[in-house]
């Protein structure tokens, strides 16, 4: 019998190799999209299996899919697929402009698939060590993707990204070593001592002193990858200087996977510590990220940088939500992860085409999008309203849940959160409004832009705000319970 | 006997970390890195012999090949092809670095002390040294302004982490160690390619050129 999990992991890996082997050909974007599409189908197949018959383990428990990661697998495969669709016309236009060549596109497509593979591996592995390896591999794949234009700015961004994330992820490895150290005393020195399912079973016996230190290192390490302040410096540069499809998957997917690693570790730390230490730490980092990002937002001039800061802000909100813990906050955190990922990638799709049209990413030089291409303009406007938490979009629902929980349990944090959200709203909306409306003399794009992904994502974001299908709600609730 | 040997190699590792912190010449930095690899392999072999853990022989072999032969070879080739072999880093204040290094060692020992008492490993006393090596490599990455020393700092940080794993727990599971080794190797190759791109753009490997992106 063929395992859906094996298919899911084999497809992007094969895609990466195939796209490298096939070399420089005109149809590479279509092959890329085809592989991503098949990966998405495999993810849907896996999801269907897990939803109907419960968690699965595979390959002597090395892989493990439960309610928590299966929805992230589905989301990752879906956004990776739509981004590959968006990247087809986007990269063609970049080629016409001379910023991309066929040989760079070969690297780009091959690394895109490898990146998808590493994220899916990080999500489905049961082994905390392999989780680390996959996160590091994701860094390596994206370093090349960020630097693909070979401009001075993109090389600088990629170097900064590598050094900062390399340092960060090394802290996470030390944290993993400490977890293994604590686990070995209980589980013995076999390979099982890093398997999350086994750790989860004995989490109450793990040595609290070791686990608290381990969690600090893990939070700092994976938090660097999730863009938490004060380790966020790489994120705006990497988003602004890399190609836009990469900004979309970095914001929409990689940050989620990094946070997923943090919350898996938090479950273990909570069990060992019997105190709110891990949660308090996460609330602190989360709140700091929200505030700092919100106050950096008004100072941005580059459109992709601005939305990168908005991603930091939202990662902060999600970290804060998981830090509060409890069924409602966890539910809201998971929902926020989903809608942020959908809406933010939609925004980047629209931003990508808008910047291509205007020939610049500087916001002062972009105007009148609605006149020259109404659909890009509306996509950007609706996406911005959605990400700023306007009802009826899903971000409103999750932020509302997070704020009401905060009011009940940590009232002191609510004014800070509200203030930061208000500042962010004023900053982003004030910038986007003149870009969308107003006059312009911009020419049309050479290739028809890919706008279906934008509206599909926004449509899903809207749907999650108005109506969460019962099976999805049950699924979130189950995952939220898992997180305790 | 073997405990003393492990402690000896651990102190060699710490000394080499200090030496790297104060070394200005790139080519010597690479040699120091290779020596650090030798100390690491020697301590792992001693641990393997003393405890009879056969998988430690394997991880010593992997580390020997990777950190004593392959990585230094790639680095030497890289600096020859990039023509930076005799480059000197001028902007480091060595006495200051030594002092900060000492502070880091004290901090690392303080942090490791409460944890290492839980360890049954014969080398538990060296956990502090491992953490100190990690922190000092970290310091090196922050303070160096050239690309190659930053990368060596990154690699030597991985040395410290590996040493932490062997000294606290007799090494991680094999599959994880293989994965980490693969990541380090791939990372090194990618960075090599990357450095050529940086040089092509800036005509130099000085990271000071890479400071254009900042908040205004």
Shape of chain B: globular
Please provide the count of β strands of chain A. 2
Radius of gyration of chain B: 18 Å
In DSSP terms (H or I, runs of 4 or more residues), the helix count of chain A works out at 19
Helix content of chain B: over 70%
As a percent range, the share of strand residues of chain B is under 5%
In one word, what is the shape of chain A? globular
Average of per-residue pLDDT values of chain B: 88
The CA-CA distance between the termini of chain B, in Å, is 59 Å
Write out the strand line-up for the largest beta sheet of chain A, numbering strands in chain order: 1-2
Structural class of chain B, by secondary structure, is: mainly alpha
| Uncertain runs of chain B | none
Describe the biggest sheet of chain A? 2 strands, antiparallel
Oligomer: heterodimer
Summarize the structure.
Helix content of chain A is 78%, strand content 1%.
Write structural notes for this entry.
The complex is a heterodimer of chains A (484) and B (216). Chain A has helices at 4-22, 28-53, 67-96, 102-124, 128-146, 152-187, 196-201, 208-226, 234-241, 244-273, 277-296, 303-324, 327-358, 369-372, 374-387, 394-409, 413-436, 452-466, 470-483, and strands at 56-58, 63-65. Chain A is mainly alpha-helical and 484 residues long. In chain A, α2 (28-53) packs antiparallel against α3 and α8 packs antiparallel against α10 (244-273). Chain A starts with a helix and ends with a helix. The mean pLDDT of chain A is 92. With 216 residues, chain B is mainly α. Chain B has seven helices and no strands. In chain B, α1 packs parallel to α5 and α2 (26-51) runs antiparallel to α3 (54-82). In chain B, 49% of the residues are buried. The mean pLDDT of chain B is 88. Chains A and B meet through α5, α6, α8 and α9 of A and α4, α5, α6 and α7 of B.
